[in-house]
Amino acid sequence: MNTIIIGAGISGLVAAQELKRQGTDFVIIEKSNRAGGRIASEKIEGFTCDVGFQLLNPAYPAARSQLNLKSLGLQAFDRGATVWHQGKQITLADPTRAPHNAGGLLHTLKGQDARAALEFLRVPSEITLADALDKSQFSPLMNRTIRTFLAAVVADEKLSCSVKFARDLMKYFVLGSPSLPAQGMEAIVKQLLEGVKESIRFNTAVEKINEAPAGVEVVCSDGSTLTANRVIVAADPLASSYLTGINKPATGALTTWWFATSTRPTESRYLHLDLSGQPLFNHTAVVSNIAPSYAPLGKHLVEVSATGLRNDDPQQIAARSAQILGADNADDWKLLTTHHIEHALPIIGADSNPVPKNNKMTLAGDIRHASIQGALASGRKAAN
Ligand SMILES: Cc1cc2nc3c(=O)[nH]c(=O)nc-3n(C[C@H](O)[C@H](O)[C@H](O)COP(=O)(O)OP(=O)(O)OC[C@H]3O[C@@H](n4cnc5c(N)ncnc54)[C@H](O)[C@@H]3O)c2cc1C
Question: Does residue 101 form part of some domain?
Fold first, then answer.
């Protein structure tokens, strides 16, 4: 055996696709009974609920090179956001894409915010995102908008990731429109599984990696031991740190509530941010306005997402979401499911673990760049 890949998330699947292309033999060892790791979609009463709301940005270079974006049938959100501030909606749109809404963004990006944006690009890369925003001095409205939005993107209310990582993510928001595949986020996984599914050994966890004279030895939970020339560790960040011995990264949690409604709460195709004094969540959106295939005909699907593991009363969540979306009420809203994802994303600090250099063991996964871009790019690099 040439290569053992640990983990059938998207990073492991991309590594497998690359090895297949090269004609190198490999096996993927996957702990669970399915591929895709943190990308999954559930079908509930005809609705598609991604397991934790997430988006694919088609500007990710690794998505462009590793995925067939056309066949995913991507449906893009409108660029910008609508914020709920002092009891009213303000739409901060990208003026190049939505000239009718340009007033909101131009209003807030003039003067202080234009200077702050320049300062944000100049602050030293080693400081945290929170410190960078403090130093940049955006206006109070823009400051809260950016913090609320990015906290959900990095799964950390404290914004303790490095500003370098945040700036890199923000670059993609400028370059592309975050989108949903017509058949749900899991369509990405289905695409990456083509031609490599038969090489996955499911329901088997790797417990230990040992050096062996001719390469590596991998000890599995079913008592078997596999040997190969090398191993690609593409597990989630906590499992990867356990298996490779690198420092355990901090991780952030996310909660998503999914509601079905029979009246359309709003025509809006924006993410709506809750900037009220006591926000119950970070954002909400009528997902079926963007991707109608996520809901059965005549029905609508609303997502509400918050950082952390949250156990709020879904009725309260629905009522606040309806309010900030500008809907009459949430009387006919039905909770479909709630997803609590404890280790949604690793928090990428400035002092993140250096990737160990070892020609028998390569680390993949989103441990260095907490995103689909990071996972896809790492899988490809590890295989080459
Ligand atoms: C709620 C949520 C929202 C997100 N939003 C976005 C977004 O909007 N945009 C974006 O770009 N990214 C987003 N992400 C991040 C993105 O989904 C991840 O970066 C990416 O899926 C990570 O893929 P991976 O292959 O590195 O890891 P994983 O998906 O974690 O895959 C690792 C695999 O390894 C397996 N495994 C673990 N331990 C072992 C072991 N010992 N032996 C064998 N197998 C093992 C696991 O079962 C899993 O299948 C979000 C993530 C979550 C959870």
Answer: no
